[in-house]
Amino acid sequence: MKLTIVEYPDKRLKEKSKSIEKFDKELHKLLDAMYETMVGSNGIGLAAIQVGHAKRALILNIPDEDDEQSIDTLIEMINPIITQTSGVTTYQEGCLSVPSFYEDVERHENITVNYQDRDGNTKIIEADGLLSIAIQHEMDHLEGILFIDKLSYSRRKKFEKEYKRMQKEKKLSKS
Ligand SMILES: CC(=O)Oc1ccc(/C=C/C(=O)NCCc2ccccc2)cc1OC(C)=O
Ligand SMILES: [Co+2]
C-alpha cells in the first residue's frame, strides 16, 4: 500500500538509520510498500527513512534504455556498505522528499557495494552510471543527509530562496 513520503524540512529526514537484524515478514511488507510508494510517485530510488522508518533499507529501480521501469530490475539493499570507489561524476539530482528541486551533485563514478537482500543473503554489486549515483544518493539518506546538504553555499542559498517562494505559492493557491 502507498505510504506517505516525509518531505523537507521534516527533522525525521536527518535521523541516522539503524541496521536491520531481522529479515522477517515485517521487513518484506515494508519493502513492498516502499516499492508501491516509489513507483506511484515516479521515483527511481527510495530510502526507508523517506517513509518514516529509520532503518538501513533502500530500493532502486533505474529505467532501462527505452525509459521503462520493470520490477525485475528492482534492487533492494539492506545494510549497504560501499567498499570501493573510483572517479568523479556530476549529475542533476532530484528527490521525492524535496519535490520540484533539482541540482547538480558530485559523486563517485564507480562504486562497489556490499549489502544484504530481503532474506539476509550477502550480495556484492559494482555500479557505474545512474545506478552508482542513485545508490550514493539513497545511502546518504541512511546517514540523514539530503542531496541539498551537499550543495555549495551559493547553490544552497538559491535552493532556500526557491523553497520559500514555492511555500508562499502553495499557501496562496490554498487560500
Ligand atoms: C514535481 C517533482 O517533485 O518531480 C519529481 C522529483 C523527483 C522525483 C524522483 C527522484 C528520485 O527518484 N530520486 C532518487 C535518487 C536519484 C537522484 C538522482 C539520480 C538518480 C537517483 C520524482 C518527481 O516526480 C515526477 C513526477 O517527476
Ligand atoms: Co532522495
UniProtKB/TrEMBL annotation:
<dbReference type="GO" id="GO:0046872">
    <property type="term" value="F:metal ion binding"/>
</dbReference>
<comment type="function">
    <text>Removes the formyl group from the N-terminal Met of newly synthesized proteins. Requires at least a dipeptide for an efficient rate of reaction. N-terminal L-methionine is a prerequisite for activity but the enzyme has broad specificity at other positions.</text>
</comment>
<comment type="similarity">
    <text>Belongs to the polypeptide deformylase family.</text>
</comment>
<dbReference type="Pfam" id="PF01327">
    <property type="entry name" value="Pep_deformylase"/>
</dbReference>
<dbReference type="InterPro" id="IPR036821">
    <property type="entry name" value="Peptide_deformylase_sf"/>
</dbReference>
<dbReference type="InterPro" id="IPR023635">
    <property type="entry name" value="Peptide_deformylase"/>
</dbReference>
<feature type="binding site">
    <location>
        <position position="137"/>
    </location>
    <ligand>
        <name>Fe cation</name>
    </ligand>
</feature>
<feature type="active site">
    <location>
        <position position="138"/>
    </location>
</feature>
<feature type="binding site">
    <location>
        <position position="141"/>
    </location>
    <ligand>
        <name>Fe cation</name>
    </ligand>
</feature>
<keyword id="KW-0479">Metal-binding</keyword>
<dbReference type="GO" id="GO:0042586">
    <property type="term" value="F:peptide deformylase activity"/>
</dbReference>
<keyword id="KW-0378">Hydrolase</keyword>
<protein>
    <recommendedName>
        <fullName>Peptide deformylase</fullName>
        <ecNumber>3.5.1.88</ecNumber>
    </recommendedName>
</protein>
<feature type="binding site">
    <location>
        <position position="95"/>
    </location>
    <ligand>
        <name>Fe cation</name>
    </ligand>
</feature>
<keyword id="KW-0408">Iron</keyword>
<keyword id="KW-0648">Protein biosynthesis</keyword>
<dbReference type="GO" id="GO:0006412">
    <property type="term" value="P:translation"/>
</dbReference>
